[in-house]
Amino acid sequence: MVTILQCRISPTCLEALVKVTTTRFGELEVDKNDIVTLKEGLLGFEHLLKFFVVDPGDQTLILWFQSIEDSSVAFPIIEPRLFKSDYSLSLLPSELNSLDLPSTVDASVYTILTIPAGAVTEMSANLKAPIIINNKNRTARQIVLQDSKLEVRFKMYKELKKQIMNFNKSDDSIRTRVQFGEVVANKPETQQMPSIEAVNNGPRPTIASKRPEAT
Predict the structure, then answer these.
(1) Peptide bond into 203 cis (omega under 30)
(2) Of 52, 110, 148, 195, which sits with the fewest C-beta atoms within 10 Å of its C-beta?
(3) Residue 213 lies in a domain
(4) What is the value of pTM for the model shown?
(5) What is the pLDDT of residue 195?
(6) Residue 124: inside a domain
(7) CA pair distance 100, 139, nearest whole angstrom
């Protein structure tokens, strides 16, 4: 990964970056390798196929799935095992093949959050239809899982709040994010509880996309 200084003097680096204007985050410079291409669009947004993951670096553990084609569309997402440790993913062979995945080892899994305005304690996660990203070729699909026990609106505020508190107490709680082409280690300076309540309030900090890590 190159730094911003290297990017300014390297034509190859500059060619790898795409400027994207977003409503929530302002203008971002996104590495082309971080762009995710959906096989089909998300439910209700089938016309949007190009996205990238944004880490605002605010210790809420919530990321954003930002559309490249529509600057106003950004979905709050989160890794389901952060608030539900027993969450398991079972994909059919045809579903794995559709993403060129031999297994889920090389995939990142995110659930889309619904955060009601003014009622953040009622936030819920769609466990039934996660976004699955192939980390090698950056293709993705939102797949409706066959497990009938999985909820579309799983209430998870309390569990997430516990994880955030544990995250801030850990000596190893370092989030890695990419800002203007440079890898930055972002470690909380205090043990203060970050405000989940502010997650719906914009504008968000200008921050570039983060390549999801395999789950």
Answers:
(1) yes
(2) 148
(3) no
(4) 0.75
(5) 54
(6) yes
(7) 9
